[in-house]
Amino acid sequence: MGKREYSSFKGKSSHRKPPHGRGGRPAWRDRDDHNAPVILYGWHTVTAALLNPKRKIRKLFATENALRRLTEENITLRPAPEIVRPSVIDQRLGPDAVHQGLLAEADPLPALDIAKLPQDGIVLVLDQITDPHNVGAILRSAAAFAVKAVVTTARHSPEATGVLAKSASGALELVPLVTVQNLARALNEMKEHGFLTVGLDSEGSADLAETELRAPLALVLGAEGKGLRQLTRETCGTVARLDMPGEIKSLNVSNATALALYIGATRLGLMKQP
């Protein structure tokens, strides 16, 4: 594991242009174009949005096969979809997007305020994690472990649209998002509200599995290849590491998140007993 690094991911971030150069305003960041839609595609992503009463769908595009499946599963269509050929959606998203015959344009979800974070369970804090695939995978793990919210920075974070939404596989509809301008200030505010803030860092003083944990718990993870920024690291109440027995000591940040969430949920007694 490299110094202060919980992501061995060195590949290119997926910052391809969104449909029509827009891709939509993210759910947790302010944009100049407040009317730009969030772009959602893929079966799990779009159906989760359709099932979420808080998500306003502006336009829905579906192939005949996708529409037949939606009808068979009794999913309410709002608004009525425009029936298109798969090639039409391909033209909107690009040939590499696995859309499964579904594309939606939607309003961003309302963001949760930092002061209204639940005082139980686990909250994730992302320190300038930029790759949308990683953030999407983190959101998916967050939904699996019933994370109360994900806090991220207003800058240096991917938009909650397109690739990120597809990677999250519907988790955008399940995990509240919080945007903050200053992460260190937000962490201090969380500590004032009783949160134990634990940063993950390879130079942490103890293994996370052996660190005393309590709720409400905030797990803080750093960017791909860089880890936690110095000020973020210094602001966390505790800094812990993930010790692993194998020869490879570094983990992709999304994998490290899943492991940290399992440890945290187990230590807090949040895992369901058989």
From TrEMBL:
It is an enzyme of class 2 (transferase). Transmembrane segments: none annotated. GO terms for molecular function: RNA binding; RNA methyltransferase activity. InterPro entries: Alpha/beta_knot_MTases (IPR029028), Ribosomal_eL30-like_sf (IPR029064), rRNA_MeTrfase_TrmH (IPR004441), SpoU_MeTrfase (IPR001537), SpoU_subst-bd (IPR013123), tRNA_m1G_MTases_N (IPR029026). Keywords: Methyltransferase, Transferase. The keyword Transferase applies. Its EC number is 2.1.1.-. Residues 12-23 have a biased composition (Basic residues). One of its GO terms (cellular component) is cytosol. GO terms for biological process: methylation; RNA processing. Residues 1-30 are annotated as: Disordered. Residues 39-112 form the RNA 2-O ribose methyltransferase substrate binding domain. The keyword Chloroplast does not apply. Belongs to the class IV-like SAM-binding methyltransferase superfamily. RNA methyltransferase TrmH family. This is 23S rRNA (Guanosine-2'-O-)-methyltransferase RlmB. It comes from Afipia carboxidovorans (strain ATCC 49405 / DSM 1227 / KCTC 32145 / OM5) (Oligotropha carboxidovorans). The gene is rlmB.
